[in-house]
Known about the structure:
The structure holds two protein chains of two kinds.
Chain A: H1 13-17, H2 35-45, H3 49-64, H4 101-110, H5 114-120, H6 130-143, E1 146-149, H7 150-156, H8 158-164, H9 175-183, E2 188-192, E3 202-203, E4 218-223, E5 228-234, E6 245-246, E7 249-254, E8 259-266, E9 273-282, E10 287-294, E11 299-302, E12 305-308, E13 314-323, E14 328-337, E15 343-352, E16 357-366, E17 373-383, E18 389-398, E19 403-413, H10 416-423, H11 429-440, H12 442-445, H13 450-465
Parallel strand pairs in A: 2-4, 3-5, 4-7, 5-8, 6-9, 7-9, 8-10, 9-11, 9-12, 10-13, 11-14, 12-14, 13-15, 14-16, 15-17, 16-18, 17-19
Antiparallel strand pairs in A: 1-2
Chain B: E1 4-13, E2 16-26, E3 31-35, H1 42-50, E4 55-64, E5 67-68, H2 74-80, E6 82-85, E7 92-96, H3 97-108, H4 122-135, E8 146-147, H5 153-167, E9 171-175, H6 183-196, E10 202-207, H7 211-215, E11 220-225, E12 228-233, H8 236-244
Parallel strand pairs in B: 3-10, 3-11, 6-9, 9-10
Antiparallel strand pairs in B: 1-2, 1-4, 4-5, 7-8, 11-12
Helix pairs in contact in B: 5-6
Amino acid sequence: MAVVPQINVGEDYREKYGFYDPEKYVFKAKKGLSEEVVKEISWMKGEPEWMTKFRLRSLGIFQRKPLPTWGADLSRIDFDNIYYYVKATEGQGKSWDEVPDQIKRTFDRLGVPEAERKFLAGVAAQYESEVVYHSLHQELEKKGVIFLDTDTALREHPDIFKEHFGTVVPPADNKLAALNSAVWSGGSFIYVPPGVRVDIPLQAYFRINAENMGQFERTLIICDEGSFVHYIEGCTAPIYTTDSLHSAVVEIIVKKGARCRYTTIQNWSTNVYNLVTKRAMAFENATMEWVDGNLGSQITMKYPSVYLMEPGAKGDVLSIAFAGKGQHQDAGGKMVHVAPHTTSTITSKSISKAGGRTSYRGLVKVHPGSHHVKSFVKCDALLLDDRSISDTYPYIECDEPQVNIGHEATVSKVSDEQLFYLMSRGIPQAEAETMIVNGFIEPFTKELPLEYAVELNRLIQLEMEGSVG
Amino acid sequence: MADFEIRDLRVSVEGREILKGVSLDLNRGEVHAVMGPNGSGKSTLSYALMGHPSYQVTAGQVWLKGQDLLQLAPDERARLGVYLAFQYPTVVPGVSMRNFLRTALNWKRGYDGKDRSKAVSPREFQSLLTGPMQQLRMDSTFLSRYVNDGFSGGEKKRAEILQMAALKPEIAILDETDSGLDIDSIRYVSETINGMRGPDLGVLIITHYTRILQFIKPDYVHVLVNGQIVRSGGPEVADELERTGYSEWADEPALAGADLGEVS
C-alpha cells in the first residue's frame, strides 16, 4: 500500500454520532500483520499445529495477492493500521456510556431488549439469555446437532472440522478470504446429521460466544444428507463497532437431498468496510438458499454464491441492499453450474437514497457438459432521489448450449402517482414513502421470520427518516 | 354557507388552464353529479380537490370545516374528511390492502405510532370491513393482496368503495366510478354507496354518462363544459342529457345510444 490515509471511520461520523473512537481496549495485538502476529493469535487460542500452518500459509497468499479492483473502491484500506486480534475480554473495554446516543436511540425505537443492546453495541460480549440457550442446546444435542462458535468447534470436533474447513473457500480464493484464513476468530459452526431437520432457525444470538460478530468471523455449516437447517446471522439493529474492517468467510456444504437456508441481516455502522466471502456447495438434489440483507456499512462487497455440484442441485440468492449517504453497497450473487439439471435464481433488490450507491454484481457460470441448466436473474433498483446511483454488472459465462438463462433488470423511482394515492387516504408523505419502499422489498421481507420482518420494516422507516447512521 | 364550498376554482395543467372558475356548493346529506363531455375538466376537478401535485391551482378556494383545502397537503385533506375514489387506482406493489387500510385508518384517528389507544384494534378493523366486503362481494383473501396489484377493473373500483366505507369521509368524490364496471359490480358498488348515504356524507359523482345515476339518484346535477359549470339543476338535468347529450355545448353524440363501457 502506498501512502494512504488511515482507514476511513465514516466522514460524517462525528456529526452523526457526536462521538470519537476512544482508545480503551483491554488488550490488543500489535497493529498490522506479520507471521509473528498470526502465530500469536493461533497460540493464544491453543490451536493444533495444522491450523497454525494453515494460517501462515494464508498469510503468505494474502501478502502476495492484489486487492480486487473490479468492484467498490478499497484503496483507502490501510492493512497495516488494523488490529487483527483483539482479545475478547468482558465488555471489550468499552462501557455503555461510550456508546453513541444515536445508536442507543435507535435501539429504543427498534425496541431491542436491554440485554441485547449491550451485546449489539459491543459492550457485553454475550447475549445474556443463558436459559433460552441451554434448553435449545439440549434439544439440539439430542438430535446430534452441533452448534458452537467456530473456535470451540475446532477444539471439540477436530475431525469433522478439519475435513471440511477451507474446502469451499480456499485461502487462495481472494485476498480477503486469505486474510480471514490467516486471522479468523469466532463465527459459527453447525453440523446437522443425516435426516435431521432443525425446526427452529438457529441464531447467532443464542450462541454463547465471547467472540461473536468479530471482525474476521469464520462460519462453517455442514448439512449432512437429507437434513435441513435455517441459520440466521445478524440482526436489524445497528451493530456498532469501532473496528472498521469486517471480513468474514462463510462456507456451507449441503449434501445430497439436504436444504440449507442462510439468512443475514446486517446493519453495520457506517464506518465499516464489509467485505465478505460467502459460498456454498450444493450436491445431488440439495438446495441452498441465501437470504441476504445489507443496510449499514460504508462499503459492502458481498456476493453469496452457490456451486451446483451434482444433478438436481438448486441455488437461490435473495438479496436487498440499502445505500444511504456516503454508502456503497456492491452486492449480488454467484451461481456456478458444474453439473447438468441444476437450477438457480438470483433476485436482487436495491434502494439508494441521499446520494448512496447500490451496485448489482452477479455471475452465472455454466461449465461445459452442464446441460439442462436453468437460471434466472432479476434485479430491481429503486432510487429515492436524483442524487442516488444504481448500476448493474450482470455477467453470464456459458459454455453449454442446452441451457435456459434469463435476466431481467429494472430501475424505478418512487412515483408521484403512488405517493398521491397513499396520501389521498390520509397517510403523510414520509410514511407513504416508507410504505412504498417496504413494499418494494416485500419479496425479501416475507422470507424472514416474523420478528425480523417487523424489525426490518421499522428499520427501513428509520432509514427513511434519515435518523439512522 | 354550505358544508363544502368550491369558489371560483381555476386549475392549470402544464401551463394550460383547464378549470376556468368553477363554483359549487355541496352539503352533507346531498348527492351532486358533475357531468361533462370528454376534456371538460371533470378529472381535473377531482384531482385538484384532492391535491394532486401536477394540477396547479391558480385561483379560488375550497372550504370545508372552516379550512381552505387548497392550502393543505393531500393527506391533510383526507384526514379532514375528503375522499377521492380514483378513476384509475394506482398499484402499490408489496403493500397489502390490510396494511394499507389499517395505516390509513390509524392516521385518520390520529394514531401516529405513539399512543396505541388511538390505533384501530384488529377486532375493530374486522368489524369495520366485514359488512362492506360482503356487500361488495369481496372475499377475505382480498385483504392479503397487494394494493390494486393484479386487480381486474371491477375489483379496483370495488376496492375504492371499500376504502371509502372504512374511512367514512364527509365529502366523497367519485371519479368515473362506473367506468369499466360490469352490471353486477355497478350494482354492488351502488348499493354500498347508497347504504352510506345519510346526513353525514356529501357525495360528488363525476361522470360522463348517466348510467350510474340510475343507481345512485343525485339531488343536484351540474354540467361541466370547457372548464366551467354551464348548467345546474335537479335530477331532471341528467334526464335531459340522457336525451340530448352534450350537443348543446360540445360536438358529441347523444348519451342514450352511447357506448357505456370504458370512458377515458
